[in-house]
Specification:
By secondary structure, the chain is an alpha/beta fold. It has helices at 11-24, 29-36, 40-52, 68-78, 98-124, 138-146, 172-183, 199-206, 209-219, 236-239, 245-253, 303-310, 322-329, and strands at 82-85, 130-134, 155-162, 186-190, 223-226, 258-260, 263-265, 293-297, 317-320. It folds into 2 domains: 11-52, Homeodomain-like (Arc Repressor Mutant, subunit A, Orthogonal Bundle); 63-329, Rossmann fold (3-Layer(aba) Sandwich). The chain is built from 13 helices and 9 strands. The N and C termini lie far apart (51 Å).
Length: 338
């Protein structure tokens, strides 16, 4: 077997070549390593990066990998139209070393992103006109990575909140654009920051014609795909420096355990009044009541936040990883799910 010379190959080409040899060519990792003239550990890293970049997506369509009893218990307890639970990995719900916790969260987000992509693929497959409102977050980003095999030129994707955040594949602009690119549809976004400097600034920004038009489109969406924040130091708002440590302590002191679309919620699903919520630019959360709202959540750290958002009565569908679902179900009135 001839060894390839990768000295002048661009990174993207090397990733694609490794992924093709492994997934399409049917080679083992050792065989790919020999063919590329690299160590096997580099092949492992190349294959992982190919998945992260969206060069490779894995879709599993089989009911045998689903926990139907667990899905049913959560759906009944919260009045959901459906609950989709990915296979549990057996992660310990207790405290974990930071690097291990981060790795587990990434795995959970990938799993939920893949499952959510299947849900969205089903909604788009008919080719009928559809407007999809999307929020932001790392799990929604994973959904775009795993979405493939569907085209719908009549689909419109619109951000439900600001799009001018720091450069991140998880921000609304990138999520909307990725969905549009993968499906051949249109992408629309809010050209404003997520948190205005003051309430007065928010009023001015919200009055802009481009913002008003984008929000009008968002309000008309047929499907809403949203995320939830856990209001911890590891939350998206904190890691993206959109919420200071002092602001985080302040909202927690008022009982807030979750955020979604710039609104804060306590453990019972009631909105928490805080100055921060009056400076955010996003679709009004009240606009989601009675609509087709699907919540995506990946990671054990989000269980408290998920429970709070489910108690608002707004969510109609839930896609969640198996480990978090088991912790969530353990507190249901009917008791833990075996």
């Amino acid at each position: 077997m001839a060894t390839l010379n990768l000295a002048h190959e661009p990174d993207a080409a090397i990733l694609a070549r490794a992924a093709w040899l492994y997934h399409v060519g049917g080679m083992t990792q050792e065989e790919v390593a020999r063919r590329l003239g690299v160590h096997r550990t580099r092949v492992v890293r190349l294959l992982a990066e190919a998945r992260d970049r969206g060069l490779v997506s894995v879709t599993i369509n089989h009911d045998s990998v689903r926990d139907l009893d667990l899905e049913g218990a959560i759906s009944r307890a919260h009045g959901l139209d459906f609950c989709l639970v990915t296979p549990a990995m057996g992660f310990d719900p207790g405290p974990a070393e930071p690097k291990l916790a981060a790795a587990q969260e990434m795995i959970a987000r990938r799993a939920v992103g893949s499952a959510a992509a299947s849900v969205l693929r089903g909604r788009l497959a008919s080719g009928a006109p559809i407007t999809v409102g999307v929020s932001w977050g790392r799990t929604l980003e994973q959904m775009t990575v795993h979405l493939s095999g569907v085209q719908n030129e009549r689909a419109r994707f619109v951000s439900l909140m600001d799009s001018l955040t720091r450069n991140s594949a998880s921000n609304p602009f990138e999520v909307v654009q990725a969905l549009a690119a993968r499906t051949g549809g249109e992408g629309h976004f809010l050209p404003v920051p997520f948190i205005a400097d003051s309430v007065a600034d928010r009023t001015v920004l919200m009055s802009q014609r481009s913002v008003a038009e984008a929000l009008a489109l968002a309000r008309s969406a047929d499907l809403f795909l949203i995320s939830v924040g856990e209001l911890l130091e590891t939350s998206f708002l904190r890691t993206q420096a959109m919420l200071s440590a002092d602001e985080l302590r302040s909202v927690r002191a008022q009982g807030a355990v979750a955020d979604s679309l710039g609104r804060l919620f306590d453990e019972n699903g009631a909105q928490v009044e805080h100055e921060l919520a009056h400076r955010t630019l996003a679709l009004e959360f009240e606009q989601l009541h009675g609509r087709d709202v699907v919540l995506l959540s990946g990671g054990l750290q989000k269980v408290e936040a998920v429970r709070a958002l489910l108690r608002t009565g707004t969510v109609q569908g839930l896609v969640i990883d198996g480990d978090a679902a088991r912790v969530l179900a353990a507190t249901l009135p009917s008791g833990p799910v075996p």
